[in-house]
Amino acid sequence: MTIKKLSGIILTSVICVGLLASCGPNKKERALQDLEQQQSQLNEQAKQDQLEANTLTTDAGNLDKEAKADTSKSQYDKDQANVLNAEAQQNLSKAASLDAQIEKAKSDATE
User: Where is the composition biased (Basic and acidic residues) (predicted)?
Assistant: First the structure.
């Protein structure tokens, strides 16, 4: 009976070792596949992050250009306002001069 038990234990051990040996590479293969999948996901995420960074850089550049254009337009508008104010002052001066001439002409006409 001990030989039978011993044979059963040895047979069970051999089967268990065989199963463990066959499971070992599968676990390793699964772990390798998991690592490869993680690497693939990280690479994809990195590509998406780079694309988003490039988009943000482009947007920032466009905003800078718009800001510079707005600054230039603002300066142009200020300069244009100064020119118009100067013209208005000249016209007021001319109007005042004409006012004086009109008053003189009226006074000459009544004499």
Answer: 62-76
